[in-house]
Specification:
Layout (H helix, E strand, L loop, with lengths): L1 H15 L4 H4 L10 E5 L14 E4 L7 E5 L4 E5 L14 E3 L2 E3 L6 E3 L13 E7 L2 E5 L1
Antiparallel strand pairs: 1-9, 2-3, 3-4, 4-8, 5-6, 6-7, 8-9
Length: about 140
């Protein structure tokens, strides 16, 4: 009996997971492999020690990456506008806790990556080890 209960609970979790395909299969932003280590003891990245602060790192992803301290962890997003072809205006800028696309002035939350468009911000993986924040794809 316990096996059936455990099996039904496990299948609920596997079948109940949402399909988040839009966040990872964006036709406008190519997949680039990279690894970036940011040392928060360095002045350039020290603002990441505090919640609601972000930095822009230009040499990764399609148009650079935006790393954001959520207060309970870190998010990293590609700085390319997720609903625009790559162009001269498709690098996003940070305004407070949002990223703004210069092409269409659409805003996306750096807490969730969501905006009011079809595709959310392209998110990258983040690992934290002491004062080093590793962002990678």
């Amino acid at each position: 009996m316990k096996k059936y209960i455990l099996l039904s609970i496990a299948s609920f979790f596997f079948l109940g997971c949402s399909n988040n395909e839009n966040s990872n299969t964006n036709p406008y932003i190519p997949n680039y492999n990279f690894t970036v280590d940011l040392n928060t003891n360095l002045p350039t990245y020290s603002t990441l020690k505090y919640p609601s602060n972000s930095i822009y790192y230009a040499n990764a992803g399609a148009r650079g990456i935006i790393v954001f301290n959520t207060g309970s962890g870190y998010n990293a997003f590609d700085a390319a506008c997720p609903n625009q072809e790559l162009s001269t205006c498709s690098t996003m800028t940070v305004k407070g806790v949002n990223a703004i696309c210069a092409c269409d002035n659409k805003e996306y939350s750096l807490f969730t990556g969501l905006g009011n468009m079809k595709y959310p911000l392209k998110q990258y993986r983040v690992e934290v080890n002491a004062n080093i924040i590793r962002v990678y794809n």
